[in-house]
Predict the structure.
Amino acid sequence: MADASASVQAFTHRETTPTELLGACLDRIDQFDKAINAFNFVRPREALTTEAVRADERYARGKPLSPLDGIPFAVKANIAIRGCPWHAGIGALSTQAANDDARAVAMLRSAGMIPLGILNMHEAALGITTDNPHFGRTRNPHNLAHIPGGSSGGSAAAVAAGMVPIALGTDDMGSVRLPSAFCGIVGYKPGYGTIPVEGLIELSARLDHIGVHALSVRDVDAVVALFGEEASNSAPPCTKWQIGSSLAAAVGSAFERIDCVDSLDWRQVNLSAWRRAGLLLCERDALQTFAGPLRESPQGFSDEFRAMLDWAREAPDEKFVRAEALIDEASAQLRRDFAGRLLLSPTAPILAPRVGEEAPDDTPNMTLPANFAGVPSISIPMPNAESELPVGLQVTGLRGAEVRACAASFFPDTAALAPL
């Protein structure tokens, strides 16, 4: 599958149509999703076809609604599509359907994009495996014996497998960028508030971001432009961000080949303490968000998730005060260190773990600071990585246009689909 931008060019030149692209997406879902389990729900073919035919007609008249008119997209199961399941990966909410589109979905619909369906996720968006006890395990399309990452694992896997060219996910401490890195695609977390979160089943109001999974940086540019984010062709100097996590050999060797004239040493920063602070706030906020369903249907939550909520329930207030203070400290330090430059790091210190393996606790250490500061960050496939599994390169900065321009300079290409 080509990226969305190439498909739009083909629509414009009458080389293909939105209806044909929709058919190709549905065919790939039929062919591959039984093994991958990226989708929880696909909208009825008749409704999808009606929307695609309308886009065909607009292109035939030379009047598309936007630069992404007719492009299918799918969303993580905590983001509302009218009439579709809306459960955040929680069994207790499995019969809940959305009455209205999330605001982000409504904005993409108004641009002519076609919402295809709902994607699997880690339970409540609080984990990195997308091994969901209620909706099944999602697998990495590059190797089904490995996880896709999480919590937006279904979103990344669906794009990597060519089932849909664009997907929305959510990111509190790395949950768009980590699965994008593990699945070999582009994953962008914009600055806080860039993509509206109304219609999201929240995990943490302070940390929640909606982000974009795509096959290319130019596709991300096209999507975020629909939300009003500006474009740019220039970027400030890049600095290698040295963070105190041990790197897997394939990750470390690929990152060493990235050429930068400067580096920023964060190896003495206690990112593990920051991670624990972020996790504690997520647990506290989840306890508030899901208090009603937890009381009414406790069996609809996994033992692991209930234990996390119990931990938050029993934690003394001073722990939350300290956690908030640590996040404030992280935000301030990051914004100071970002002045006039962009930071490059591996997206994750490891390759995608095998299914059933424990991922190291520090897996999100490189992604979480951008959430704490509410600043843009993008993961792209690492150039020249010598690995059977994908490796991610992360670019983080204060301005989204600069972050994306830098990412495009390292990765101007379209990600290769997983060799299914």
The two ends are 13 Å apart (CA to CA). The chain has a mean pLDDT of 96.
